[in-house]
């Protein structure tokens, strides 16, 4: 019980203080788990980060789950997730419940400021990921081709197909220049791991069929958010186009509400995937409010939990396979292209309507990328400035 409480309160502390996105979260985690508490060695931590970068889902949350798993078992993984996610989820749910009582149009200056700053945040994410994941002509070509295809024909299934073929391309045409850091972390139980992997794929296949058989909005929500959480490679920002494709065309959430929530998500600590709780809260169809928020939040994070518990026992063997490493190079490059397409639609097209909008967006980008100001400061400053310039 002592270990369980320690895991929860340590994760809760990180959930209240970890600003700046997934990369910053991993730095906070290293300081807390490696340097201060010494729950895991530096080499084992690097190996764990490499694994979570390979898996779909929010890498920082998965690292936290894995450390909770090693410290206090499966219940420890759950408590680690709850602690890290709870602060941002509560803030976003209250924000969502409040914003649904307002007139959500572009004439709300503060709301439009949130939509404009989202352009700067996504642009910075693309630049940072592009430098790291597309360092050569082959991978930048994958990114651009992915973006072009999605700008012509965009759907969640097409995105999955592109990721698959990018992985195949990586196996045959890309080279993994360096090996991953190695130190065994958590061997786990292969039987339990197999069950969790089966559940991951089983739910991914089962819920779309269940959705067709029963016209039930709870099933629809769970399926949409589970699929988004299961198919996102590259971190929280990449969930944006997947979720947008699920909730906006269906009429569950308007584009204005969607981008407002995304903007505020970048001004608070914790995982960006907590954005799912906001979408559940503001959904125009029931279940919404607190019930919808909890359903969407659990559904979005459940794939990550199942994969972490399922894959860790097999990681030692998988990490040595060169084809796995090369396929991930192609997939990661394609992720950059997905995000690049999302920068135009829906982020840019719903935020930039004038020279003032563009000026505010590039100013936000300047402070994020070159002055290295925390994203929450830039978001708040942009909203305040929007009151004076619109």
Walkthrough of the structure:
- This protein has 390 residues and is mainly α.
- The chain has one domain.
- 75% of the residues lie in helices and 0% in strands.
- It contains 17 helices and no strands.
- The chain has helices spanning 2-17, 22-36, 42-54, 59-99, 109-133, 137-152, 156-173, 190-213, 217-230, 239-247, 255-265, 275-282, 289-311, 315-318, 322-348, 355-369, 375-389.
- Helix 1 (2-17) crosses helix 4 (59-99), helix 4 (59-99) packs antiparallel against helix 13 (289-311) and helix 7 runs antiparallel to helix 15.
- The longest helix has 41 residues, at 59-99.
- It is globular and about 60 Å long.
- The relative contact order is 0.18.
- The mean pLDDT is 84.
Percent of residues in β-strands: under 5%
Q: What class would the helix/strand composition place it in?
A: mainly alpha
Count the strands? 0
Helices, by number, come to 17
Low-confidence stretches: none
Sheet with most strands: none
Q: Please, how many domains?
A: 1
> Using only CA atoms, what is the Rg?
20 Å
Overall spatial form: globular
What is the H/E order? HHHHHHHHHHHHHHHHH
Mean pLDDT: 84
Roughly how many Å apart are the termini? 54 Å
Portion of residues within helices: over 70%
Family: Belongs to the chromate ion transporter (CHR) (TC 2.A.51) family.
Keywords: Cell membrane, Membrane, Transmembrane, Transmembrane helix
InterPro entries: Chr_Tranpt_l_chain, Chromate_transpt
Membrane topology: Multi-pass membrane protein
Based on the model shown, name its key terms.
390 residues; mainly alpha; cell membrane
